[in-house]
């Protein structure tokens, strides 16, 4: 059976996994769910991923969640070109380090802005909660983007090397998503140049980001 991928195209970790599959021409079947409509919490989906989040991958009866783990699993099990997840133990550790950093830094800032600006109004959160969340999110994003900016002033790719890795894919998907919930990479020229470079080097970037771009365009109207 071909790989089964459960995703919402508006979700950063989902697009990162999808890009990896698309770039490597790996046959897979997509099952679309809407996070905002709560579709990841249905009993049926919880059979796939009990945590109730996307993405999830099913490989011949083997269910896997967590985007970074899925990406590492795909790189190793499908023997993707070395630059995605290098075999050299130190280069690989550098990629892992940025993936871990992503979920404890940049993503934490994004999560707080999502809470303030997207879920705040939908879930009727108090103004105090919204303001606190927005302030925390802005502060975390500022320190995260500054750290990326400094790194990218020395390297073309976040974990070094001369080609992008899965750490670039994960982080680029997050940075590209920031405007959806009121964040921005403005004022970080090296981050913006890196994102632009990746959006051309990743051949399927536009395909994977089509729904996000549609959503952003509809918000501008
Ligand atoms: N650490 C997880 C995060 C997954 C995640 O937060 N997914 C969100 C969409 S971006 C989700 O499914 N949320 C559904 C919910 O929390 O109700 C990963 O990298 O896969």
From TrEMBL:
Residues in GST C-terminal domain copies: 88-221
Classification via Gene3D superfamilies: 1.20.1050.10, Glutaredoxin
GO MF, one annotated term: glutathione transferase activity
Domain of life: Eukaryota
Keywords, in A-Z order: Cytoplasm
SUPFAM superfamilies according to UniProt: GST C-terminal domain-like, Thioredoxin-like
Residue ranges occupied by any GST N-terminal domain in the UniProt entry: 1-82
Keyword hit for Transmembrane: no
One Gene Ontology term, aspect cellular component: cytoplasm
InterPro entries recorded: Glutathione-S-Trfase_C-like, Glutathione-S-Trfase_C_sf, Glutathione_S-Trfase, Glutathione_S-Trfase_N, GST_C, GST_Theta, Thioredoxin-like_sf
One example of a Gene Ontology biological process annotation: glutathione metabolic process
Subcellular location: Cytoplasm
PANTHER family reported in the protein's UniProt record: GH16740P-RELATED (PTHR43917:SF8), PTHR43917
Protein name: Glutathione S-transferase
Provenance organism: Rotaria sordida
């Amino acid at each position: 059976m071909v790989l089964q991928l459960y995703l919402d195209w508006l979700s950063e970790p989902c697009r990162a996994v999808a890009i990896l599959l698309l770039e490597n021409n790996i046959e897979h079947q997509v099952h679309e769910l809407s996070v905002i409509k709560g579709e990841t919490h249905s009993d049926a989906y919880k059979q796939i991923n009990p945590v109730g989040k996307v993405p999830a991958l099913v490989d011949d009866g083997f269910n896997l969640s967590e985007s970074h783990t899925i990406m590492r699993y795909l790189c190793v099990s499908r023997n993707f070109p070395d630059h995605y997840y290098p075999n050299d133990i130190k280069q690989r550790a550098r990629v892992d380090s940025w993936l871990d950093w992503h979920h404890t830094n940049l993503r934490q800032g994004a999560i707080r802005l999502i809470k303030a600006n997207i879920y705040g109004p939908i879930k009727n959160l108090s103004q105090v909660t919204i303001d606190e969340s927005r302030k925390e999110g802005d502060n975390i994003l500022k320190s995260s983007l500054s750290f990326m900016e400094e790194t990218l002033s020395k390297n073309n790719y976040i974990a070094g090397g001369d080609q992008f890795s899965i750490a670039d894919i994960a982080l680029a998907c997050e940075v590209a998503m920031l405007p959806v919930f009121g964040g921005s990479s403005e004022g970080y020229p090296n981050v913006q140049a890196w994102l632009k470079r990746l959006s051309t080097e990743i051949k399927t970037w536009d395909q994977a980001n089509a729904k996000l771009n549609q959503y952003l365009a509809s918000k501008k109207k």
